[in-house]
Design goal:
Blueprint: H1 4-12, H2 14-23, H3 31-39, H4 47-60, H5 62-74, E1 79-81, E2 87-89, H6 92-98, H7 104-120, H8 122-142, H9 148-154, H10 160-172, H11 174-188, H12 212-222, H13 228-238, E3 243-244, E4 256-258, E5 267-269, H14 276-298, H15 301-304, H16 308-328, H17 333-369, H18 376-390, H19 421-436, H20 441-452, H21 459-465, H22 474-495
Parallel strand pairs: 3-5
Antiparallel strand pairs: 1-2, 4-5
Helix pairs in contact: 2-3, 5-8, 8-9, 8-17, 8-18, 10-17, 11-22, 12-14, 12-16, 14-16, 16-17, 16-19, 17-18, 17-19, 17-22, 19-22
Length: about 500
Amino acid sequence: AVSWLSTDILAIGAEKIEAFIAAEPGLAPHAHSLRNILRAAPHTLSPEGERIMAAVGALRADPEQIYELAVNADIPWPTVTLADASAATLDQAGYARHRQSANRADRKAVFDAFWATYGAYSDSLGAALFAEVKGNVFNARMRGHASALSAALFEDNLPDGVYRTLVAEVNAGLPVLHRYFKLRRRVLGIDDALRYYDVYPPMFSLEKAFPLAETKALTLAAVAPLGADYVARLDAAQNARWMHVYPAPGKRGGAYMNGSAYDAHPFILLNHNDDYDSLTTYAHEWGHGLHSLLASAAQPFETARYATFTAEIAAIVNEFLLNDAMAAKAETKQEKLFYLGEALESIRATMFRQVLFAEFELAIHEAVEKGEALTGAKMTDIYCGILKRYHGHDRGVMTIDDAYCAEWAFVPHFYYDFYVFQYATSMAAAAYFADEVRKSEAPRERYLDLLRAGGSDYAEKIVKRAGLDMQSAAPYRAVIARMDRLIGEIETLLAE
């Protein structure tokens, strides 16, 4: 319905548009959007072409819908009998729960059954993902982009260098990940080779509850380095009726922040279980909530909405501040080991695992761009090579069974078009800013200005103004160095 908009604005011409912006104050809130349309001129088609591309958009949504129906409705998930004689149904939630079992035989049974099911449907799921990739390549070529990656990054004006530097630096940091796996094997007391099903059980346990009142207090204390105004805003927000906290029948799972109501306030949906994971989730979601509050206070409606590239920074900074505060005030060695172990696992899952996904996503798009056809078997082969490299299979760090390489079919984010890398860039930036805000008022204000900027400029430029170049190697090396430091702290505590 609005496919004509960009072409009509471009028909006016850049010179006249700039003159209109300069002459009409009422256009100021729209200036960034108008200039973004002008920036897209080389990739904008004729009015007829834009109508065709808009119509094709409905077809391009089909692969994800097919995938969602298959995994959520059609595939019959297996049931396995665990060591305690209980039966476990391995749908998505069941797998996520039972892969953390303390019983190693149970973990193996869960992995064997779950990934065998995905392997049995890899032809169909491979066809769906192949269709998704072909659609992305089609879009990139029709719009004159150099690649599907460039097309996906174009919307936020992100250079390919951010993506490729991230992948290169994480590969360079794999020895630190392998050091973590060796520590995990030692702590879990595994005598033979570490296996892929040994990744998920926690290394350390903590029998401690974090009810809502304590969760509020701990989060408020942890974010003190962000300044009195941030703390006051959070204090007022978390004591207002802005969140639905506890699980309930028919309630959606997970945790989410919705800040779309510009002239109201953010809404937080949680499923709080009074455990440490709930505490960190709480701090994370309120990082999003304060981002929305600060952006809406500083920006007009038109530029208050921010990009994903900056959104996760605000949430993960809060997580880092909380984890550091909890480790610093731990009352026992076991408690401190638990917090350090949780921090390590967060970096593994958000930095290394998401970049593994990002590297696979880039590989399958580049294969199609070269004219190759993708099948489920071909995707399994590509994924297996990357999975084994990341986990040190050929170096004797961890053994990856070939059957588990069907994992690519499990990841819905591959239908989000080069999305997952932003989890890792956000963690890298968050590690930098979490350290910087403790130093003095100046870096803290630069970080808060990042939050206040909302969507008033391109995300990478907003981050750069705050003092961090995401095209450089520095932020990625910083978070990998943080992981290395945490491993060292754990090893020192274990040696005491």
